[in-house]
Design a protein that fits this description.
The complex is a heterodimer of chains A (about 200) and B (about 450).
Chain A (H helix, E strand, L loop, with lengths): L10 H11 L3 H14 L6 E2 L1 H5 L2 H4 L4 H6 L9 E2 H8 L7 H4 L12 H12 L6 E2 L1 H12 L5 H15 L7 E2 H7 L5 H4 L3 E2 L2
Antiparallel strand pairs in A: 1-2, 3-4
Helix pairs in contact in A: 9-10
Chain B lengths: L1 H28 L5 H30 L10 E2 L5 H6 L10 H14 L30 H42 L4 H21 L2 E6 L10 E4 L5 H7 L5 E5 L3 H13 L3 E3 L1 H4 L2 H13 L6 E3 L10 E2 L5 H4 L4 E8 L15 H9 L4 E7 L11 H16 L2 E2 L13 H16 L13
Parallel strand pairs in B: 2-9, 3-6, 3-8, 4-5, 4-6, 7-10
Antiparallel strand pairs in B: 8-9
Helix pairs in contact in B: 1-5, 1-6, 5-6, 5-8
Chain lengths: ~200, ~450
Amino acid sequence: MGSRASTLLRDEEIEEIKKETGFSHSQITRLYSRFTSLDKGENGTLSREDFQRIPELAINPLGDRIINAFFPEGEDQVNFRGFMRTLAHFRPIEDNEKSKDQNGPEPLNSRSNKLHFAFRLYDLDKDDKISRDELLQVLRMMVGVNISDEQLGSIADRTIQEADQDGDSAISFAEFVKVLEKVDVEQKMSIRFLH
Amino acid sequence: MEAVLGAFLQLLSAWFVLAFLLIVLPSVFGATLGISELYLRVLVKILEWATLRIEKGTRKLQKEKVKPSTSNVIIQRDQTTMEKAIAGLRCGDFELSDVFYFCKKGFEAIVEDEVTQRFTSEELVSWNLLTRTNVNFQYISLRLTVVWVIGVLVRYCFLLPLRITLATIGVLSIIVGTTLVGKLPNGETKDWLSDLVHLTCCRILVRALSGSIHYHNRENRPQRGGICVANHTSPIDVIILTNDGCYTMVGQSHGGVMGVIQRATVKASPHIWFERSEIKDRHLVTKRLREHIANKDKLPILIFPEGTCINNTSVMMFKKGSFEIGATIYPVAIKYDPQFGDAFWNSSKHNILSYLLRIMTSWAIVCHVWYLPPVTREEGEDAVQFANRVKSAIARQGGLTELPWDGGLKRAKVKETFKEKEQKIYSKMIIGNGTSSSGSEDLG
């Protein structure tokens, strides 16, 4: 992908992305033009700074964690393919996707993948557990300086207590899913993409 | 050889005489020969035809391929406020699902945000036969291509030289004219002549852009002792407005040709140019503006309170400075018709010369200028509220989207305080007892 940012997207690339992410042809081309306009370095990839330049994202308390989700471990550039793969988590679940295709891999926008995405925002060290510290970090990002350590600590304790079933004082993915059982994840973690 | 040179010189002088008789002379008297009106009418017809052609062509394409996007909106954003989205049925207390709201907001901003797209050229729904707009229009039909080629020839081989000639005449005469007027002793004659020079030169320059400007509600034109505020798209806003009346310009001193013009004009008319070091000094700026306003004989001041060029689809935050002074404000809305050429100056991408070249090789500059009724600060209203009120009025009149964001974000990063504001709202929700505050305040 490297140096061919300004050229148009090849058809086979679009096909591959379509298969992988479920986005439609016109959605992919439109998102590609968004991608290139964010790409200030014009090198076919986005850096963290490219994301931070979006003011509405920069004021988002979880902005840094969201940006992080685009970058695989240890990398600081993301190409269009990777960009689309992460975005795909927020594609709404369409009616024909609800009947699960047993053979194929689970689509990126499934309920479980959406939940997994949210889980990873908390689970910074990727040990598949949200520890008290990890939870506190996210809480602190969301509340800023407005709530005391003490108060925040008790919020974290209560949350873990409510979710924890195996008594390890941390929240596993299974426990996370259980807590959010009744939440309309499909709606809350979906963006209304136009055709 | 000499014969060729002689013929060339003759052609050149004929060209200048023609330009002078047909364009410069009418400019002095503010008259028009109706040539540009005719040109525009023909242009509109051609563009209408081209649009039909393109639609036909794409309909054919559609069968085998994909629907072309008619708009560039990718998503429909969720407008639910934080309180509604998170609090929902419960009041207070943190829940693990609260991050969903921030995630969704964040991703929406990544896919499509309100601010950064205003700093790039607006994309057109239909192609206007200029190469640079809408990259994704491809070969459609032979006839369309032929028309496009003719268009290129006309724009580059006829219009461009003519426009450069006019621009040169305009710029030279403003420099020479104002310098001469500057030699006169201060008084009514000087002011009158100064206005005449400014007006004439702007008329010539408007013609150099093939400008067709429609002024509305001229009874509200800015009066002496007031401040005229307008939305800002390009440096040519100044020419567009001065074409219909003189202003005192306020701005930063430049170098190069702009600097020469600034130094010449300031001799004839009391424009206020600040050095780069001075512009940061808000007290000094306000003081000099106040002094100017205090003298009711002086021309209205022209200010673009957005502080930067926006692509003419929205109005961004107005800096409060000009609204603190206490003068009568004359709001003006300027809306360019993007069909004939993109007036937006994307200063981070093009320097002023290549921008002018783009403008002069476009079809024309067609725009509407609305003079809004003058307003003054109401009792109990602070400068920020007053600025917002004027901004809304301009946005409404010009059909522009009103945004609370600061145009300065084009270059600078957003201030931490806005993130803190979000955090504050959220904190209140999880520890407070459901008391909600308004989530939408000024951002910038």
